[in-house]
Design a protein that fits this description.
By secondary structure, the chain is an alpha/beta fold. The chain is built from six helices and ten strands. α1 packs antiparallel against α2.
Length: 197
Amino acid sequence: MSIRPLEGPRIYDAVKQAGVMDRGHTVLNSGRHTMIKVHLDRVVDNPTALEVVQTALRDSAKQLGAQAIIPVPKGAEKIAMAGRRWLRYGRPVYSPMKLDSRSFEFPEPEQERIAKLGRVAIFEDVVTTGATPAAVARELLKINPDIEVHLIDGWLRGSIMPAFEEYFTSITHFIERPIEDWLPEDCPYHEAGDFKR
């Protein structure tokens, strides 16, 4: 498995100007607590930031030789599909349906197409532990056990756990900037009453 950071000032600056960070105590999808939540899907409201992120996605998928892009619902899917620009990726975009926080399913016609592919790129907007894109990878591997799965993430805010890393041939980060988070029992702000879900 290889890790390919792409971050440059252009990606981070464009994303930051799109107002993607909220401050205040909140709970992440992973169940961990933090004082900063990243909403990368807000780039869809900023044409400059959207162009930068979608171009990075297109170029990364092309460099990996991915035959399809698989955006994780909802944030990454929103970014990938915004403005019908996905038509310029030069490869199909297949979106899984989210059944619950850690299980996904592809519609039957897409399953048939995925079964014929050799290499795909999962796109996730923000990654803390890697559990969600790994769940999508598991579903892809059920459909096609021989498929090569790559992960492209918009912002790595945590650290991908080794158990989830093993699903990916490579991982590409547009932005790799850790943001402190805690297990619920270790959260210094939980007792303070400053709490949002």
